Structure formats: C-alpha cells, structure tokens
C-alpha cells in the first residue's frame, strides 16, 4: 500500500539516473527521531544501493531522491518532521519521500506538497514504490523470508564505530499518552536465527566491535514467537557466543521487566548501560498513564541492576506535566529521579498526541509555564546525576570503543557504562582500547 500526496516530480536528472554507473540515481536519507528510525533509514539506503544501483548522496542538494524518516512521538517531533519534508519539497529538485511514523498516522501533514508518502507498514515495499513513481527498472530484490520483520538484512555501510541491530518492532502496551502502537502496530520479534545471521554479518562484513540491540519494546522480545521459553537474555547469550563484539542494549520498557530478567542479562560482554522508560515516580500518575508497575517496583528494578552490574549507568525517561500532575506527584518523580542508581535523565514535557486517551484530558492540562519549570528542574537533576556518576567512576579501569567524535583535539571513546573519554594517542575509530578513568581524560563537556 502507499499514499501519494501531490504529484511527485519526475525531473530530467532523475529520468537519466536509472542505471548503475557514473549517472546512478543518488539518494539522500534524513532521520528524525529514534535509533530505530536511524537503523531503518540505513537499511532503506542499502536497499536502494542493491536494488537500483543507487549512490548515497552526502547532501540533500546532490540527491535525486530525498528519503525522510519521520517521527511522531511528540507534537514537537511531528512538527519538525512536517517542516523538514515541506522545506525539502519546496526547495529541492528531487523526489521527496516521507515515511516513518508521521507518514503512518498523519499522512495529511504532507497534503498539497510534492511528496510521495509511504507509511511504516509499507516500508518493505518502499523501493518498488519509488521506482514506479520514477519509471525506473530495479534489480531483483532480496527475497523476504517468511516470519521476518523489516529489514531482513542488516545494513553494513560506511565507517561507523558501532552497529545497530533491530530485533523487535511494535508494542502491545496501551499507555494512555503514547502514539507508538498506532504508528508501529503490535509487538513483533525478529526470529532468533535471523538476528544471529545479521549480527555475524555486522561483525564479519562491517568489522563492528559493538552492536546495539534496538526495537520499540525490547522487554517483550520473543514472546510472540517462543512464549516464555526464549527472550532477550537468551538472545544476548547466543549473540555473545559469536564473539568479536560487545553488546549494548537499548531502551527497555519496565512493563513486564522482571528482576530475574535483569539477572540473566548480567553476562560478560553486555555493556553496563541501560535506559529505562520509568516516566513517573507517582503511583497515581503511573495508573493514569496506563503503566502497569509502581514506584516501588521501579526502585526494586534499579536496585537489581546495581547489584547485577557493578558500575552500571542507568538512564531514565521521565514525562513532566502529565494532565492532573500535582506538586506532590511531581515531588515523587523527583525522588525517584534522585535515586543513586540513575545516571542521567531524558526529560519529556507532556505532549498530547491525537488518538490517545491522555489527549482527551483537556480539563486537566497544566499551564505551559508549570510544565516548563518542572522540565527545567528535571534537567538540572540530570546534570548533577551525570557528574555524580562520572566522579564515582574515577580510578576505575574500562574498555572504550573509539568513535569519530573529537573532543579537545582527541578522538572520543565511550566506555561500556556510557562515559565519554579522550582516546589514547594513536587510537583509530572502531578500536576497543583499555583506559583508566581520570579527571584529565573525561570529556566533561559531552553528554
């Protein structure tokens, strides 16, 4: 399926670039939102390269096709997506393709524009949709294996320090504020054997020494395929048996996260860095959000992480200004955010998303000034927590993955527990180097 908005422009340059070679089609990808979107953008660019013989452009002005992977998680993210797509359609001599979550839940955002809209559910067929719009012939695409989720193969392209690997998509939770289930559909897991094949390709063909597992609800991995017999800890165990890389686990959903799951994840090679979408420390607000845990449950999980992963860094998502949030509710969230196990916060001012239960609570919406003030308090707590954690790690030994970022004329390396350090002289991107953390090599200005 596809939705087409406006009439896609087919310019002479695009017509000419339908075959591999010096005049190959040039495609530029732009991602808004999460790591999952970034991964899918890379996968689509790889598919363009394989199926169309395309080249990846480094700037949108150089491209014949501009692929925009949009985000709808907040009102602000959706507005940014809409602005980028409209601007690109207005100023570029290229076919603009809007996909991702805004394309899925609100394709009307692009009405009246010269944009081809491909929703999330049609990403697997995006290359063919674009080729048809341009009147191009494509190579035979790689066959889709039954039971797999998009993409069927991991993108291996470019010089990057770490690889992302999508193992799950969608969500079965129905939190009252969240639009993601509408945009991504129900929870679906990538089969174990496909994940292991993709990880091996990233190690062997890409040379990656760190792989980041990503998805919408990693906590639910495997339930749809294997029941309770095979989940995230078992997948991590099997991936680490491949050898050659360390494993970082992206954001985890506390709903359904058990203490024994955390303990079984404590494997050599799993990075001591986790991010939990805890959202609030008020049981009353958690109930209104549809979150099936309490503040006491969250504290038990945090304690389990610190016991299972000495030196762990834990990030926490927090929503401030949820409709009806009182000063007492906010104070309880502050208390949870100040838990010594929390190393930093991602702060989200409440954003009413159309189609969700919370968007109907207009009579309980807080004044914007109150939300802004509470968000500022939380960001201050985050900065203090980050400094406290880094100071606590002084004098400890760690392994850094060298990145392409530069800080004070040195390459940056990231420890497994999420501290950016200056890499030793002579380091190269992608290397794993042993380092002792001290005040001189911490990149204090980086988050």
Structure characterization notes:
With 447 residues, the protein is α/β, with parallel strands linked by helices. It has 3 domains: 3-134, Rossmann fold (3-Layer(aba) Sandwich), CATH 3.40.50; 163-378, Alpha-Beta Horseshoe (pyruvate-formate lyase- activating enzyme); 397-436. Helices cover 33% and strands 20% of the residues. The chain contains 14 helices and 18 strands. It has helices spanning 12-16, 35-52, 75-91, 101-105, 126-134, 180-184, 192-204, 223-226, 232-240, 259-265, 283-289, 295-308, 327-337, 368-392; strands at 3-5, 26-31, 55-56, 65-70, 95-100, 115-117, 163-166, 168-169, 188-189, 210-214, 246-249, 273-279, 313-320, 342-349, 397-407, 410-415, 420-422, 432-436. The protein has a 6-stranded mixed beta sheet with strand order 1-6-5-4-2-3, sandwiched between helices. The chain has a 4-stranded antiparallel beta sheet with strand order 17-16-15-18, with no helix packed on it. The longest helix is centred in the last third of the chain and has 25 residues, at 368-392. It is globular and about 60 Å long. Mean pLDDT is 92; it is low at 9-22.
Q: How is the secondary structure organized here?
A:
Blueprint: E1 3-5, H1 12-16, E2 26-31, H2 35-52, E3 55-56, E4 65-70, H3 75-91, E5 95-100, H4 101-105, E6 115-117, H5 126-134, E7 163-166, E8 168-169, H6 180-184, E9 188-189, H7 192-204, E10 210-214, H8 223-226, H9 232-240, E11 246-249, H10 259-265, E12 273-279, H11 283-289, H12 295-308, E13 313-320, H13 327-337, E14 342-349, H14 368-392, E15 397-407, E16 410-415, E17 420-422, E18 432-436
Parallel strand pairs: 2-3, 2-4, 4-5, 5-6, 7-10, 10-11, 12-13, 13-14
Antiparallel strand pairs: 1-6, 8-9, 15-16, 15-18, 16-17
Helix pairs in contact: 9-10
């Amino acid at each position: 399926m596809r939705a087409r908005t406006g009439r896609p422009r087919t310019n002479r340059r695009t017509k000419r670039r339908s075959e591999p070679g010096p005049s190959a089609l040039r495609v530029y990808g732009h991602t808004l939102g999460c790591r999952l979107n970034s991964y899918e953008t890379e996968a689509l660019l790889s598919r363009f390269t394989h199926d169309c013989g395309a080249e990846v452009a480094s700037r949108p002005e150089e491209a014949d096709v501009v692929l925009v992977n949009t985000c709808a998680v907040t009102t602000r993210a959706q507005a940014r997506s809409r602005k980028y797509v409209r601007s690109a359609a207005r100023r570029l001599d290229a076919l603009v393709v809007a996909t991702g979550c805004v394309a899925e839940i609100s394709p009307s955002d692009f009405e009246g524009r010269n944009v081809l809209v491909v929703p999330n559910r049609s990403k697997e067929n995006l290359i063919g949709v674009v080729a048809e719009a341009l009147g191009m012939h494509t190579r035979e695409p790689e066959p889709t294996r039954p039971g797999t989720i998009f993409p069927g193969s991991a993108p291996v392209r470019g010089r990057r320090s770490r690889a992302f690997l999508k193992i799950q998509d969608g969500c079965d939770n129905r939190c009252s504020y969240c639009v993601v289930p509408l945009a991504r559909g129900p929870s679906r897991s990538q089969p174990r054997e496909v994940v292991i094949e993709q990880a091996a390709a990233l190690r062997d063909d890409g040379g990656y020494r760190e792989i980041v597992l990503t998805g919408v609800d990693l906590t639910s991995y495997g339930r749809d395929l294997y029941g309770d017999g095979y989940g995230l800890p078992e997948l991590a165990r099997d991936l680490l048996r491949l050898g050659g890389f360390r494993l970082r686990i992206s954001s985890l959903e506390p709903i359904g996260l058990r203490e024994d799951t955390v303990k079984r994840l404590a494997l050599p090679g799993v990075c001591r860095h986790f991010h939990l979408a805890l959202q609030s420390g008020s049981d009353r607000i958690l109930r209104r959000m549809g979150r099936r845990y309490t503040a006491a449950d969250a504290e038990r999980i945090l304690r389990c992480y610190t016991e299972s992963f000495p030196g762990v860094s834990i990030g926490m998502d927090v929503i401030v200004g949820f409709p009806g949030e009182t000063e007492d509710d906010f104070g309880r969230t502050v208390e949870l955010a100040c838990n010594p196990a929390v190393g930093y916060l991602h702060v989200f001012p409440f954003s009413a998303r159309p189609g969700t239960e919370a968007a109907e609570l207009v009579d309980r919406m807080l004044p914007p000034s109150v939300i802004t003030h509470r968000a500022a308090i939380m960001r201050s707590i985050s900065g203090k927590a980050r400094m406290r954690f880094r100071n606590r790690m002084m004098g400890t030994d760690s392994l850094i993955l060298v990145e392409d970022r530069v800080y004070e004329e040195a390459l940056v390396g990231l420890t497994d527990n999420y501290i950016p350090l200056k890499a030793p002289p002579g380091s190269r991107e992608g290397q794993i180097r042993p380092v002792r953390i001290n005040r001189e090599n911490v990149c204090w200005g980086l988050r």
